[in-house]
Known about the structure:
The complex is a heterodimer.
Chain A: E1 4-6, E2 10-13, E3 19-25, E4 31-38, E5 42-49, E6 56-57, E7 64-70, E8 73-78, E9 87-94, E10 104-105, E11 109-113
Parallel strand pairs in A: 2-11
Antiparallel strand pairs in A: 1-3, 3-8, 4-5, 4-9, 5-6, 7-8, 9-10, 9-11
Chain B: E1 4-5, E2 10-14, E3 19-21, E4 24-25, E5 31-38, E6 44-50, E7 56-58, E8 64-68, E9 73-78, E10 87-95, E11 104-105, E12 109-114
Parallel strand pairs in B: 2-12
Antiparallel strand pairs in B: 1-4, 3-9, 5-6, 5-10, 7-8, 8-9, 10-11, 10-12
Amino acid sequence: DVKVTQSSRYLVKRTGEKVFLECVQDMDHENMFWYRQDPGLGLRLIYFSYDVKMKEKGDIPEGYSVSREKKERFSLILESASTNQTSMYLCASSHRGQGAYEQYFGPGTRLTVT
Amino acid sequence: AQSVSQHNHHVILSEAASLELGCNYSYGGTVNLFWYVQYPGQHLQLLLKYFSGDPLVKGIKGFEAEFIKSKFSFNLRKPSVQWSDTAEYFCAVIIMDTGRRALTFGSGTRLQVQP
Lengths: 114, 115
């Protein structure tokens, strides 16, 4: 089974802090993604990566950055956390190749910024 | 911009009732289509997917969905729901022509099944 793990289930940070959210997948997937999930808005794509050291902006990248130094690890960074970044953050991965490109999701990190 | 619409935000059904959740997308090219489900306190998991072939696809737990290209729709169905189907359901699309392999999600439908 594909396993995507995220470093924390719950996180509370103060406004202005730098926040790191870590994601690791164990299935040698090339593609990795970060989404945020908010009630009534579904999931929105923040950043994604097709390979090590590669990154692409998603639909809502403002206020975020990412790092992918190893194939299995994809980090989301909030440079200076703000209250409007309080949300559930989901990491996902998928294989590059033919087929449906289905994504496998981690359990999520619920971040509260106070 | 491409979008995915789920018109039912909250659905309440009794056990054994039939279910149909609507999903429409706004892109006219080649798409891959998905339904994901999130049970309370659990990971988002794949329910079913369509990328080619028979437009009627079957997924886990008795769910099915039909891709109707002319209507840009991919509605989810189940003939008889159970209390354990209580969850949030998300329709999602990958636009294949762009090369971007990221999902665009709908806003979700919360299904509550009453025993």
